[in-house]
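Attaching the record inline, Q. Sequence:
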Amino acid sequence: MQLATEAARKWWLWGLLAVLLCSSSCAIHFRRPTTTVEALRISEVVSEGDAARRASNRLVVKGLDADSQQQSDRALGIYEEALRVDATNPYAYLAIARHHVDGDDPTWALSFVDKAGSLFRADGGVSPRVEPHLVGLRGQALYASGQIDAGLPLLEQAWTVAPDVWADGQLSASELR
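Structure, as predicted:
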């Protein structure tokens, strides 16, 4: 019964998102983004960095696979292991944020988005391919937690920059993988 209620809530929220997007900016869905990027996938960076970062990123990809297979508890355990291997891995925090945004309390995702962003900046800056994930996950978390007016502009911004991933207003585990 709880799964049905959660599924109905998500469908209702996504329906509301579609109505608000259409009514709030006339033809937002039909507007062609002017500058787009191919959003980063963590599988692209598994061979980068030192041994600890590479091992941690391999664990993150394994966790995303578990998330894709609806093995939420297993995925979270794998992400936590990735952080034990490399506590400064921004990709692990990004994956955990994505994991929590789909959970019972999406506001948990916000602190992980913040941590990922600060680690990317400390590592030399936020890549234009990572930025839509940070913005979009923040928007998705705010929207899902009921802060629709705060979340919608961020979701639109993520969609504008990375429409292939963010057109539906969410980041799936397989899209981040």
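Residues 1-31 form one domain. The radius of gyration is 16 Å.

More tomorrow.
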